[in-house]
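writing this on my phone so excuse typos. first protein, seq and then structure
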Amino acid sequence: MYIRVSIINMKMQGRAREKRPYRKAARAAAETATHAAILDAAFQAFSADPFDRVTLNQIAERSGVTVQTVIRRFGSKEELFEELAQRESRRILAERDVAEGASLSAALESLLGHYERDGDTIARFVAQEHLFEPIRVIVERGRRIHREWVERHCRHLLSGLDGSARQRVLHAATVATDLSTWKLLRRDLGLESAQVAEVMTELLHGLERRS
C-alpha cells in the first residue's frame, strides 16, 4: 500500500512539474499581449488627439485593462509615449530598410511606402512639436533618422564634396525627400503617389547634375 501511494504521489508531482512550464509560458504570452495591446491603444489615441488631451484612462479603456495596469507597466503618460515612440521607430526603420547597395529608386520607393502608411500621423505629431516636449524629442529623432537615410542612399550626390558644398547638397537632398515635401505634393497639391516619386526623383537628378 505504501509503495502504491508513493508511486501515485510521484506521478502527480511529475504532472505538476510538466504543467508548470506551460503555465509560465501562457502567463508570459498573456503579459506580452497585454503590453502590446496597451501600446496599440496608445498609438491610436496619440494619433487621433493632441498630446495633452490623451489620458491614461482613455488608453486603459481602449486596451481593455485598468488604469492601474497601465501605470504599473509604464509609469506615466510621458514614459508610455516614449516606449511607443521607440517601438514605432524600430518598425519604421525595418520598413524603410533596403538591401545594402540597393538603387536610389528602390530606397525612394521604400521611403514613400512609409510616408503613405504613416505620413499623416507623423505630420500631426510635427504640428505639435513646439507645444509638447515629448513630441519635440521624437520629431527631432525622426529628423536625424531621415538625415542618416539621405547620407546613406544619396552618397553619389555627396561624393567628392566637402565643407559648405557638401552641406548644401545634403540639405537639398533632405528637403527633396522630406515628409513635408511629400505632404505638399501628395496632400496639398493632390498628386498621386507615383507622381510624387517622379517629382522627388527629378529633384534628386537635378542635384546630381549640379554636383
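second protein below, same order as before
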Amino acid sequence: MTNPLLRVPLPVAGLLALAVAMGIGRFAFTPILPLMQADAGLTLAQGGWLASANYLGYLVGALTITRISWSAETLLRAGLWLVVITTTAMGVDSSWSGWLIWRFLAGLASGWVMVSTAALCIARLTAAGKGRQSGIVFSGVGCGIMFAGLACMALALLQQSSARIWLWMGAAALAGLLGASMMWRLPPAPTADNPAAAPATAAQAGAGLRAPGLHWGLIICYGFFGFGYILPATFLPAQARLLIADPLVFGLTWPVFGLAAAVSTLISSRLGQRFTQLQIWAGAQVVMGVGVFLPVVWHGLPALIIAAICVGGTVLVITAAGLQEAQIVVGPATARKQMAAMTASFALGQLVGPLLFSSINSLFGASLEFALLLGALLLAIGIVPLLRLRRTLEPA
C-alpha cells in the first residue's frame, strides 16, 4: 500500500515541475525578449519566429507523447533535464540558428512535462481523494512566470545582459528540477490497468461510456484557446516597452501576468464546487477576450496591466478546466491520449498565432495592436463551439 506521507509533497513537486517547464522553458523568453532586442539586435519579427520555434517544439512534444513507450515518470525526468540544458544553451550560444534549435527543444520538453505532470498528479490526487489540490499543481505555471518576470526585471536593473540572464534562468531551472525529482521517486501512478488504484467517480464512469475515444470537440476548442491567448502572452512586455523604456515599469507586466495566473488556480478550485468545468472554461475565455482586446482601444500602460491580469488570471483556469474535463469525458483509459491531443491542438494554435503575426508584420508592417485584435477575435469565435459542447456534455 502506498505510504500516505509520500503524497504530502506531490502538489508542490507538480508545482515546481510546471514552474520549470512553463515559467522558464516556455515563457522566460517573453520578459527577456525586450532585452534581446536592446543588446542582441533582435527584431520583433525575429522574436516572433523564435517564439514560434518554441511553440512548434511544444506541438511536437505533445504529438510524440503517445508514440513514445516511456512511462510518464521517464518523460517528466527527460523533459525537465532538457529544459535545464536548452535554457542554459541560450546564454552560451549567440547564433540565430542555435537559438531556433534551443527554443524548439525547450518547447518539446515543455510539452512532455506538461502532459506527464498533469497525468501523474491528477491521477494520484484523485485516487487519494485530494482532487482539489490540482489547483496547487497548475499554479506552478503562474508561479514560474512570476518568478521569471521578477528575476528578469531585477537582473535588467542590475545591468545584466540578456545572455547572462539566460544563464541565471538555467540555474533556476536546475534548482526547480531537484525539487520536482520526488515525483519520479514515488510509486507508479494509478492507471486503467489497475482499477483498484484508480477508482473512477460516477461522473467519470458515465462520461467514459458516452465517449470511449477522443473527444474532438474539446480538442478543437482548446486550439482556439491556444491561438487567442498566445499573442498577448508573447508580446505584452514588448508592447509595454514601446510606451516606456524604464525596465522597472515595462517589466511589471509579466510578473503581474504570472501572479494573476498563480492566484487564479487556487480560486478556480472553489469555483468548481458551484460550476461545471465547461462553465468555468467559457466564463474565463470571455474575460480573457476582453483583456486581450482592451489595449487595442485604450493606449496606455494601465490597459496593459489590466490585460495582463485578465489574460494571466484566466489562462490556467482554462488549462485546468480543459484537462479535468478531458478526464471526466473520456474516462481514465483514454485520458492520457485525450490530454495529449488537446495539448497538441493548443500548441498548434500557439504556433499559428506568432507565425501569422510575424509574416504580416514582415510583409505589411502590422502593429502589435493588430496581433491583440486577432487574438481577441479568435477567442470570441472559440466561444461558439464551447457553448455547443455545454449542451451536449452537461446534463440538462
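DSSP finds 15 helices and no strands in the chain. thats all i got for now
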